[in-house]
Amino acid sequence: AQSVTQLGSHVSVSEGALVLLRCNYSSSVPPYLFWYVQYPNQGLQLLLKYTSAATLVKGINGFEAEFKKSETSFHLTKPSAHMSDAAEYFCAVSSDTGRRALTFGSGTRLQVQP
Amino acid sequence: DSGVTQTPKHLITATGQRVTLRCSPRSGDLSVYWYQQSLDQGLQFLIQYYNGEERAKGNILERFSAQQFPDLHSELNLSSLELGDSALYFCASSVDLAGGRETQYFGPGTRLLVL
After folding, report:
1. What is the dihedral of CA A7, A24, B86, B105, to 10 degrees?
2. Which of A5, A25, A102, A103 is most buried, by CB atoms within 10 Å?
3. Is A72 left (phi over 0), alpha (psi -120 to 50) or beta?
4. For residues B30 and B53, what is the distance between their CA atoms, to the nearest angstrom?
């Protein structure tokens, strides 16, 4: 079975500050990991994904994430927050064996203070 | 715009009723996934279809069913609705690359309110 834990349901940062959203996964097989963003009243948009190539993955809007197998983590970072980054962020896992549908974490709501 | 369309955007109905949610995948995508997003359960996978055939089932209730048609659009049927079925229902589509690493593209969702 696969699962994802997102630490912190709410994160608040100041504009220009570092954004760090935490994600830990559990998987008995090599995982594929995804970060999606959901803006109010919209669907989910892919920010980035890890599929066993480079462990440091760069995504859209200046976000990146690093796959750390030893820590079973896939934390999302952005050096400098912008007001437009305010949204809900979801970490998800799938794999190439067993269930290929996404298993999502509970989400982290990011607030950006001016 | 992900290229995945869902109709209707909003749906208000009463307990005990039946509704149908429709999804059109991105051009060329053969896989369609349905997810439910609710406050208490979060985002949960319901069911997947690939080229007209059911491929995987998640936490889908027996009162719910889905199908994918020859033109690849999909419908999710929810019957005997209960208050707890109120949620946002997403459809996602993907190409079917080997290994499950493919990106799933999500539609804007259908917000269902059961009164």
Report:
1. 130
2. A102
3. left
4. 10
A49 close to B (CB below 8 A): yes
- Chain-chain contact of A90 with B43 (C-beta, under 8 angstroms): yes
The predicted-structure confidence for A76-106, as pLDDT tens digits, reads as follows 999 999 999 999 999 999 876 656 789 999 9
Residue labelled with tokens 């794999």: A95
Cα B20 to Cα A86: distance, rounded to the nearest angstrom: 33
Q: Which of B48, B103, B106 sits opposite A49 (nearest CB)?
A: B103
Of B56, B101, B109, the CB nearest to A101: B56
Cis (ω within 30 of 0) for the bond into B8? yes
- Per-residue pLDDT of A1-51, as tens digits, reads 789 999 999 999 999 999 999 999 998 788 899 999 999 888 999 999 998
Q: Which of A100, A42, A97, A35 is CA-nearest to residue B33?
A: A100
Burial tier of B22 (Cβ tally within 10 Å: 0-12, 13-18, 19+): middle
